[in-house]
Structure formats: structure tokens, C-alpha cells
């Protein structure tokens, strides 16, 4: 795969030019973006792969849900439905996608969860319901420039920052690095918990933010317990289990469990893996399965796995929560 990417290096300038030109057309108003007179917050990235968008959306939900009616709007990647869908008690990972279903499963009594590949139509439909949301969180919509979000949060990982990358197909960027200028906040995610001030300053220089941009650093905090549909186990009590992951980058999770001295087999599937009947047959042979919360949303439908399937919750820890929370809430005060 890596070799193929280098073979495709001559295509990089073409991809760069096409995406750069697309952005120019939007920047100069030749292609139209729709803006809204209420708060729309976009969480996204420049690269393909996992930068931590789902935990960041959940961070925002927890920050805002007590004071505002929050709606999340995603495209519903790999769902088996089309058009606008508003999650209800009949929702599944197949009907709205695994990440939106995770939002609904955790916050169904507090927020609205919707999916639509056409974000403008999704926003329009949310405005038509009886109880309209006060704020809409757009999940993975940084490149969806038909919507002009009022506030953009751009995520980039510590190990693979956008400023050291190039565009597809050889690199991982969906658009040129200059796209980062559209962000209000840039968060370097999945940082080591002991990241020094000197290294933060070095990264900050490489980000080279605009005067109106704010840069933060975040890390992943894993729970001390794993959770099933009916039970909880302490991580330190896990023995000879199978770790099942279908995410973009499972390395941090593998390292966390390995550092605990735990022994486990790792079945590593591609991101948003659609588990087949054969996959489930194989998983049924395992005595104990630990997975991510996103994968749990797709696997918990199988009754045969019910007693052996657990997920490990995670949270985002941001280096200066007071400041980032104030920036977000100040934006809402202006728009509402």
C-alpha cells in the first residue's frame, strides 16, 4: 500500500491543484456557501483517518447540553439508509451510522442526532422540527464548504500533523495545508500526557496560527473500567481477552492495554468495518472481547456476543479547558 502511494506521487500536484482551486472558488464567492443566523459549529480535519472527531463532538455535547438544545449532524458514513434521518428509538448503527448511533445511545435524552450527506438539507430539516435546536454540531464537515459554519474546530494528530503531510494520494491530506486558515481553533490531538512546554512551543511555531486562531493540545484519557450491556469490569482484572478494533488507528489503545501488562489477541479491522457473518462466527469463539465504543455500537446487536462483549470508554482532556470553553460559549452568546 505504501509502495502504491509513492507510485501515485505524480498525481499529487493534480489533486493539490483541484482542491486548491475549489477552495479559491468558495473563498471568492464564485461557488456559494450558505451561512446561518444561529450557531453552527464544525468539527473536522484536513486528513483522512482518525483525528479524534467523535470524542471532540462528545466533549462539545457535554459542554453545551445543560444550557442549550444541541443537535449533531453527520453524513452517517456506511449507513444503509439515504437522505435525512432523525434518530429515534428504532435507530441502529445500520440506519444512521456507528458514530451518530454512539451519540444517540449516550445522549438520547439530552440532544437531537441527525444524519444527512447534504448538510444544508440536514440543517434545513432540523429547523423544521417542532423543537428546533439552539446549536448544531457538524461532524466531519470541514471540507463540506456548501455550509459556512460560524465556528470551525480543526483537529490534527500529534504523530501525523497536517503541517508535515502532503495531499492525497501519496499523503493523507484531503486538501492543501492552507485550508487550516479557515479554522477558529486548532487542536493537536492524541498528545502524550507528559508533553513538555518546549515541545508545545515547537509545534505552535510549525502551526504558525493566524492572529485570530487559537491552538490547543489534547490527550486521550482511557477509563479504568470496561462496560457491557449489563456489566462492568475493571481493566486491571481483564485476562486473556481479544481486542477487536475497526478504527483508523488502534495504536494508542493497544499501547494503553499493553502498558497495563495485559495479555490479549488483537483483531484489527479497517475503519468502520462492516462485520460479516463469518466475523461474528469467529468472534463467538472468543471467551472475552474488548472493543472500542464505536465498534460496540455495531456489534451489540448480536445476541450471541452479549455476555462477552465490553467496550473501553475514552474522554478528551484539553490542556486549557477554561479558555477553550470560554471561546466556544462566547461564540454562542454572539449568535443567539
Automatic annotation (TrEMBL):
Pathway: Glycolipid biosynthesis; lipid IV(A) biosynthesis; lipid IV(A) from (3R)-3-hydroxytetradecanoyl-[acyl-carrier-protein] and UDP-N-acetyl-alpha-D-glucosamine: step 6/6. ATP binds at residues 47-54. The chain crosses the membrane at residues 6-25. The keyword Transmembrane applies. It is an enzyme of class 2 (transferase). Keywords: ATP-binding, Kinase, Lipid A biosynthesis, Lipid biosynthesis, Lipid metabolism, Membrane, Nucleotide-binding, Transferase, Transmembrane, Transmembrane helix. One of its GO terms (molecular function) is lipid-A 4'-kinase activity. It catalyses: a lipid A disaccharide + ATP = a lipid IVA + ADP + H(+). SUPFAM superfamilies: P-loop containing nucleoside triphosphate hydrolases. Its EC number is 2.7.1.130. InterPro entries: LpxK, P-loop_NTPase. Transfers the gamma-phosphate of ATP to the 4'-position of a tetraacyldisaccharide 1-phosphate intermediate (termed DS-1-P) to form tetraacyldisaccharide 1,4'-bis-phosphate (lipid IVA). Belongs to the LpxK family. This is Tetraacyldisaccharide 4'-kinase. The lineage of its organism: Bacteria, Pseudomonadati, Bacteroidota, Flavobacteriia, Flavobacteriales. The gene is lpxK.
Amino acid at each position: 500500500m505504501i509502495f502504491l502511494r509513492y507510485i501515485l506521487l505524480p498525481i499529487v500536484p493534480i489533486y493539490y491543484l483541484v482542491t486548491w482551486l475549489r477552495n479559491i472558488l468558495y473563498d471568492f464567492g464564485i461557488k456559494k456557501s450558505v451561512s446561518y443566523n444561529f450557531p453552527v459549529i464544525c468539527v473536522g480535519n484536513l486528513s483522512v483517518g482518525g483525528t479524534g472527531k467523535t470524542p471532540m463532538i462528545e466533549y462539545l455535547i457535554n459542554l453545551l447540553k445543560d444550557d442549550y438544545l444541541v443537535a449533531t449532524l453527520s453524513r452517517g458514513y456506511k449507513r444503509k439508509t439515504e437522505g435525512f434521518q432523525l434518530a429515534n428509538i428504532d435507530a441502529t448503527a445500520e440506519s444512521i451510522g456507528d458514530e451518530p448511533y454512539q451519540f444517540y445511545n449516550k445522549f438520547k435524552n439530552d440532544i437531537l442526532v441527525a444524519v444527512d450527506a447534504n448538510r444544508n438539507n440536514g440543517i434545513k430539516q432540523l429547523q423544521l422540527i417542532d423543537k428546533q435546536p439552539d446549536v448544531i454540531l457538524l461532524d466531519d464537515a470541514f471540507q463540506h464548504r456548501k455550509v459556512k459554519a460560524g465556528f470551525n474546530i480543526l483537529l490534527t494528530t500529534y504523530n501525523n500533523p497536517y503541517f508535515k503531510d502532503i495531499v492525497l494520494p501519496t499523503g493523507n491530506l484531503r486538501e492543501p495545508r492552507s485550508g487550516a486558515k479557515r479554522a477558529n481553533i486548532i487542536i493537536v490531538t492524541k498528545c502524550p500526557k507528559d508533553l513538555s512546554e518546549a515541545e508545545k512551543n515547537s509545534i505552535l511555531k510549525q502551526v504558525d496560527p493566524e492572529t485570530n486562531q487559537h491552538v490547543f493540545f489534547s490527550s486521550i484519557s482511557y477509563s479504568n473500567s470496561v462496560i457491557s450491556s449489563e456489566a462492568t469490569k475493571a481493566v486491571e482484572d481483564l485476562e486473556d481477552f481479544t481486542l477487536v478494533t475497526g478504527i483508523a488507528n488502534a495504536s494508542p489503545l493497544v499501547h494503553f492495554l499493553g502498558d497495563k501488562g495485559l495479555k490479549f489477541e488483537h483483531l484489527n479491522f479497517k475503519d468502520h468495518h462492516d462485520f460479516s457473518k463469518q466475523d461474528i462466527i469467529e468472534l463467538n469463539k472468543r471467551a472475552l472481547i474488548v472493543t472500542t465504543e464505536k465498534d460496540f455500537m455495531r456489534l451489540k446487536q448480536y445476541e450471541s456476543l452479549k455476555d462477552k462483549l465490553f467496550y473501553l470508554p475514552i474522554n478528551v482532556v484539553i490542556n486549557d479547558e477554561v479558555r477553550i470553553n470560554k471561546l466556544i460559549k462566547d461564540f454562542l452568546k454572539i449568535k443567539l
